[in-house]
Amino acid sequence: MATVVGEVLVAAEVLMKVVEIGQICAAAVKEWQAFSNDAKEIYLKFNHENRKMEALHRVLTDKDKFGLGKPLFELMEPQQQHDVKDILLHLLQLLHCFQTLAHKYNMSGAQAEDSGTKELLESALASQALEDALPDMERRVRWLQTTTGWTKKVRWTAGGKTDAQKLVAGIRDWLVLISEEIDQHFWNLAGLAQNSVGEGTATSPATLDKDLSAGFTRLSLLGDDHDIATLSLNNSMRVRRRVLQLRAERLPTGEAFPSSLLEEASNVQIGPEVQHARFQATVSKDRAISDALVEFRSYQGEAEHVESGMKSLCMMLMEPKHESFRLPCPQGLYHDEAEARYGLLFPLSSLGAKDLNSLWTLEQVISTTERERLPAPLKTPRLEDRFRLALTIATALARFHSVGWYYQGMNSKNICLVENNATVAFDKPFLFGFTKTRSFDEKVSYDDSDLANNVYRHPLRWEPHPRSRHNALYDLYSLGVALLEIGLWRPAAGLLSPTGQADNFDMSAFMTDTYQVQAYLKGWAKKALATNLGSTYQQIVLGLLRAQPESASGGTWQTLPAQKRLMHAIGILQELCESLTLTLDEGISTA
């Protein structure tokens, strides 16, 4: 208890100091605008971060802000309090450096120049007659005033500008980390952490409804809060609020689903399959015709549970989200009664693709049979491109889990890259493959008839007879397989095929012992991954493929809860990416 109180007091003191120094620096940096346009840009950026620091102080320490009875920081778990405090200390250290820099390049210089003038005057009066001393003194004062400003400008250009830019960037990065901690805590605060409403809990429907209602109320307040918006968390709150609403309503009759989003069958023309389980579609609406991709979820017999699940999924995908989710936005839902299936329609325009030929799945990119058709950037991706791709899809999965949904579609067939003007943004893929996607508390599972996808599934989750309910760790296992493919730049099925070709892979050979595939994949990771992307990347992949159960007694990162385990891996991937993109001139003094 004493430790917790100590953390609270230290954090409060550090926050006060952060705000105090931030205000001092903001006033000093305002004067830098006289240096150059670059200095004005730094002033604007620092002001933006300073507003975040002030908002952070109110969010963490104001006990009346969200009607919680205590400051938000006190409600955090001890480990999270410790992490936030450490981040604040790093932030304070950067602000101290910034304050020193602000004093060094303080443009006013009035006090120093007055002091210099006084010394010149006294010296001149002591050695010369007044009428002879004044002209000489005036010339020396004018020279001093002119050269002081000029000298500072030269020093600013030589080194001060670069130092200021680095410090502002560092301050921004630490503020982003604290915002992410707050974001995760709000999710727990709303009563929606996976552990509290996940599978296997004995929560009664009445208690769950009460918790959902309370959580929705909290997130409603948070989504409209000015300080939450300043910290760029309002969109996250709106997405989660919508998730709560969908859970609370259960969508039994589809009343919460706008009828305008259900496309008429006569307006949709389904074309050929252009990617794995994705079809070309033409949608006619309001006399306009648009091209789209469509993914289906089939049903047998009663369609009520599939309809409800697809409507919830469609609404979740349509909610405004941070771009790091990397999820496509559908324009609506399509019911194909003749084929007994529901389809999500994704306009090509929303993907930034000019046509279907500019969309490539990761499976196509890493397959030797497709190599001749690939555009140049996809044939020979740079090392940093592969690291960015790995980081982006791992982050997207963490985002997916953070709003209470299991993905169940992580494989190279569902990671889509967009080619534009002969370039490909490897850090901006889209995730598709929502055949089995569902929310944490949705009790109905969805079938996947394609047994080849078992390569990406944990041994206990193999179709057609999975032996365990899906949980977040199984999504992490699938991520491990995808990261292995990125590391070796080969399809996982090809690694298991005697010929090395994915097309010749025979899944039936592994159906009697599902753990064989896991063993083979770990073997490939141990044998070849370190040579391609390094031993650190290798350890991340092996940790995900092992899928060890959580351990309350601690241990390694591989036994942490699923989301913490994933966030740890993301942090390491982030460091690997940054180490590959250093500027050669960084750290070289130009003075």
UniProtKB/TrEMBL annotation:
Domain Prion-inhibition and propagation HeLo, first and last residues per copy: 77-174
SUPFAM superfamilies the record matches: Protein kinase-like (PK-like)
Taxonomic source organism: Dactylonectria macrodidyma
UniProt cross-references to InterPro entries, sorted A to Z: HeLo_dom, HeLo_sf, Kinase-like_dom_sf
Name recorded for this polypeptide: Prion-inhibition and propagation HeLo domain-containing protein
Gene3D superfamilies noted in UniProt: Prion-inhibition and propagation, HeLo domain (1.20.120.1020), Transferase(Phosphotransferase) domain 1 (1.10.510.10)
UniProt xrefs under Pfam families: HeLo
Lineage: Eukaryota, Fungi, Dikarya, Ascomycota, Pezizomycotina
